Amino acid sequence: MASNQPSVFIDGEAGTTGLGIRKRLETIPGIVLRSLPEAQRKDPSARRDMMAVSDLVVLCLPDDAARDAAASATALGADAPKLLDASTAHRVDPEWIYGFPEMATDQPGQIAAAAKVANPGCYPTGAIGLLRPLVDAGLVPPDYPITINAVSGYSGGGRSMIAAHDREGGPAFELYALGLEHKHVPEIERFAGLNRRPIFVPSVGHFCQGMLVSVPLYLDDLPGRPTGADLREVLHVFYRGCEHVAVAAGTRDGKLEPEALNDTDRLELYVCANERRRQAVLVARLDNLGKGASGAAVQNLRLMLDLGSRPD
Q: In sequence order, what are the beta bridge partners of 279?
């Protein structure tokens, strides 16, 4: 429903991502934030009525609930709001636009024109951010045997994981999804431009937020046997002028810690290479609650509502 001031309803605003989005939106003038009383937040009729009077609805729900909510919104016909889904439910659905504005030159325009946008996952943001430009440039073949290792703060793992780490004596570090069926793999494969399923090994550390995503490469196995500088230059050119993405050369001491970008909406990309050994590791650093979730959602929302962008 159009108005002078766009209205936004966050369906699932009490969760970690929903709270982060609301906090960011409260700093943007000219947006009407709609909300239901706590007693009505699970009432389908109340939620549907709220959707009908909102310009955009952000779905911060479990996958099945997000699908149901999207169907309910679509059924409103002419009163249907724009939808921004923060769940995994629609990320590879061809009827939804993938909400990674920096992924391609025309992606911001597609997001701005879309009625339905799927917010990227936190891990895929790092992996796609590293790989897509190199695949597009032909430096990494689509069928290269990619391995992705990642560590995240526990805040992205849901209530049970947060509770486990908040308890005294919580786990220091855990590998998980060792059945190799993590739900983020399909979007990584598709939007990184790969045609061979990558091996993805996520982990969680005993820190609240922050993330590192790394991809090891044998340089001599890549077309043209590029140097680390070649990879870095492709990333530099691809992301030149981006507000939220920066490309770095590496680190002086050979270390990267995951919390440096906490409470920001930035994404840093590193190429760490050993030319003598002809090996490299690509590393993405981000806040899993920022550019990996709420920050990305607000970036997409700005495009969808034609609010312009704001540097982090």
A: 218, 274
Residue 179 in this model has a pLDDT that exceeds 70:
yes
DSSP 78: G
pLDDT tens digits, one per residue of 221-239: 999 999 999 999 999 999 9
pLDDT 10s digits, 67-87: 999 999 999 999 999 999 999
| Tokens linked to 149 | 């290792």
Q: Which two tokens stand for residue 116?
A: 């339905």
Strand order in the sheet with 279-286: 173-175, 199-205, 147-153, 211-218, 279-286, 267-274, 245-248
**Contact residues for 175 (Cβ-Cβ < 8 A; gap 6+):** 201, 202, 203
For the chain, what percentages of helix, strand and coil (3-state, to nearest 5) are there? 35, 20, 45
3-state DSSP call for residue 149?
strand
Tokens linked to 284: 């993405």
The one-letter code for the residue type at 84 is L
Is residue 269 within 8 Å of 238, Cβ to Cβ? no
Tell me which amino acid residue 159 is: R
In this prediction, residue 170 carries a pLDDT of 75
The torsion angles phi and psi of 274, rounded to 5 degrees, stand at -120, 100
pTM, to two decimals: 0.93
Active site residues per annotation: 122
76: left (phi over 0), alpha (psi -120 to 50) or beta: alpha
- 294 closest CA partner among 25, 5, 7, 4: 25
Rg of the chain in Å (alpha carbons): 20
**Nearest-angstrom CA–CA distance, 221 and 283:** 19
pLDDT in the model for residue 63: 96
CA atoms within 13 A on the CB side of 86: 32
* Three-state DSSP state, 244: coil
DSSP H helical ranges for the chain? 16-25, 44-52, 63-74, 107-113, 122-136, 158-166, 185-191, 228-238, 295-304
